[in-house]
Inverse folding.
C-alpha cells in the first residue's frame, strides 16, 4: 500500500465512497466535451503515450481511450480501492488501460516516457505540489506536456438567481481542505508551479461548464449533497445553512431562464529539450532570488555600491549617474516595487517607495541605505553583551 500524501480520502470526502465515486464520474462528464477538445487542440492524438496521475475511478481514462483508441493510456492512483474500481470498469468496457497503485510524488518507472501527463483535481489536495510536479516531469519526454486541471474555489460554481448560501458552503469547504493540508484555491498558482519545475508555460485557460449548453442534470449529479452533509457532520458548516441552501437551490432551478456555471483552471507546461532537473526541495523563491542577486556582486563591495550597480543593471541604464532621479527614466510602480524588494534583499533596508518613484536623486537613496545600515550596526553593537575582559570586575582584578 502506498503511504497517503493527500488531503483527499474518497471514503470520508462525502457521505460515503460510492456517492463520492458517482460524483467524481459526473464531474468528469460535466467538463469532458470541452476538455476533450482542449486535449486535442494542444496536441493529443492517437499513438501517443498518456498517464493520468490521480485518476480516481478512471472516468477520464475511459473518455480518452474511447476518443483516441490507438493511444497508449495508463493511470496511477494512490487509493488501492480506487485502483480496483478503475481497473474493473476499464476491463468491463474492454478498454486496454492499466491503472497502477502509486503516488504522484514517488511514481517511478525508468522505462516510462510520456507525451502527456494529466493531473486532474489532484494538486489541490497535495501538501507539497512542487514535489509531485517535479517527479512527474521526469517522466515526460522532451516537448511532452503536463496538464494540470484544478479548482480555484473563489471562481467556482455560480448561479442566477443567486443562491446566497453557496458562499458559506464554499468557505466551509475551503477551511476543511486547508486543515487537511490542501489548497482549494490553487488554480491561479499552478502556472508558476509549472515554471518552477523547469517547464515552459504553453497554455493557461479557464474552462466553463454552463447549463445553457449541457442542461441542469450534469450539475445536479456532480455537485450532489454528499459534501455539504459531510461538512455539517464534521462541524465545518452550520446545520442552519443546509436547509435554506437546499430550498434556494431548488428555487433557482425552478426559475425560468436560470443559469448555473462552473469553472476549472487548466495550465499546460511543456518540457523543453534542454530541461534540467530542479531540486524538489523547498527552496523559497526569495532564497533563490537572493542567491542569484548575490552572485552578481563582489563580496567586499559596499552595500551602496552593490545597490547602485544593481539599479543600473536592473534598469539597463549603464550610464546612470548618482545625481539622476529614477522618475526621469519613467520608473513605474511595478518597477519601483521590484527595486524596493531587491534592495531589501541585498541590504536589509526598505527604501521608501516615494524615493524610488519621485524626483529623489539616487545619491539620496544610497544615503538612506547607508544611514540605515550604520544605525543597525550601532544598535547591534549596543545590544552585544560586553566581553568579560572589559568588565569592571576584570579591571579590579588587574
Ligand atoms: C478529487 S479526486 C480526482 C479524481 C480524478 N482525477 C478526476 O478528475 O475525477 C483526487 C484523486 O487523486 C488521488 N490522489 C490524492 N493524492 C494523490 C497522490 N499523492 N498521488 C496520486 N494520486 C493521489 C485521490 O485518491 C483521488 O482519486
Amino acid at each position: 500500500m502506498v503511504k497517503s500524501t493527500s488531503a483527499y480520502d474518497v471514503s470520508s470526502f462525502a457521505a460515503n465512497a460510492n456517492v463520492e465515486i458517482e460524483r467524481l464520474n459526473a464531474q468528469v462528464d460535466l467538463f469532458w466535451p470541452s476538455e476533450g477538445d482542449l486535449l486535442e487542440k494542444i496536441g493529443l492524438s492517437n499513438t501517443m503515450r498518456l498517464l493520468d496521475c490521480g485518476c480516481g475511478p478512471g472516468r477520464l481514462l475511459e473518455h480518452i481511450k474511447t476518443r483516441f483508441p490507438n493511444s497508449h493510456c495508463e493511470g496511477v492512483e494512490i487509493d488501492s480501492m480506487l485502483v480496483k474500481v478503475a481497473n474493473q470498469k476499464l476491463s468491463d468496457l474492454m478498454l486496454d488501460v492499466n491503472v497502477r497503485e502509486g503516488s504522484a510524488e514517488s511514481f517511478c518507472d525508468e522505462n516510462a516516457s510520456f507525451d502527456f501527463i494529466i493531473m486532474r483535481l489532484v494538486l489541490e489536495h497535495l501538501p507539497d505540489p512542487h514535489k509531485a510536479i517535479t517527479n512527474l516531469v521526469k517522466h515526460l519526454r522532451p516537448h511532452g506536456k503536463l496538464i494540470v486541471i484544478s479548482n480555484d474555489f473563489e471562481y467556482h460554481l455560480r448561479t442566477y438567481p443567486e443562491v446566497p448560501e453557496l458562499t458559506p458552503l464554499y468557505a466551509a469547504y475551503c477551511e476543511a481542505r486547508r486543515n487537511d493540508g490542501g489548497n482549494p484555491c490553487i488554480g491561479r498558482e499552478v502556472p508558476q508551479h509549472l515554471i518552477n519545475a523547469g517547464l515552459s508555460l504553453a497554455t493557461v485557460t479557464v474552462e466553463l461548464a454552463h447549463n445553457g449548453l449541457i442542461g441542469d442534470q450534469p450539475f445536479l449529479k456532480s455537485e450532489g449533497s454528499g459534501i455539504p452533509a459531510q461538512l455539517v457532520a464534521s462541524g465545518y458548516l452550520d446545520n442552519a445553512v443546509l436547509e435554506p441552501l437546499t430550498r434556494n437551490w431548488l428555487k433557482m432551478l425552478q426559475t425560468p431562464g436560470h443559469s448555473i456555471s462552473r469553472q476549472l483552471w487548466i495550465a499546460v507546461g511543456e518540457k523543453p529539450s534542454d530541461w534540467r532537473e530542479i531540486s524538489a526541495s523547498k527552496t523559497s523563491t526569495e532564497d533563490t532570488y537572493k542567491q542569484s542577486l548575490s552572485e552578481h556582486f563582489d563580496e567586499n563591495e559596499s552595500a551602496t555600491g552593490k545597490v547602485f550597480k544593481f539599479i543600473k543593471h536592473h534598469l539597463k541604464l549603464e550610464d546612470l549617474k548618482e545625481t539622476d532621479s529614477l522618475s526621469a527614466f519613467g520608473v513605474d510602480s511595478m518597477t519601483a516595487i521590484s527595486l524596493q524588494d531587491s534592495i531589501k534583499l541585498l541590504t536589509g533596508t526598505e527604501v521608501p517607495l516615494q524615493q524610488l518613484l519621485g524626483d529623489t536623486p539616487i545619491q539620496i537613496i544610497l544615503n538612506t541605505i547607508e544611514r540605515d545600515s550604520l544605525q543597525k550596526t550601532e544598535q547591534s553593537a549596543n545590544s552585544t553583551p560586553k566581553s568579560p575582559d572589559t568588565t569592571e570586575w576584570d579591571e579590579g582584578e588587574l
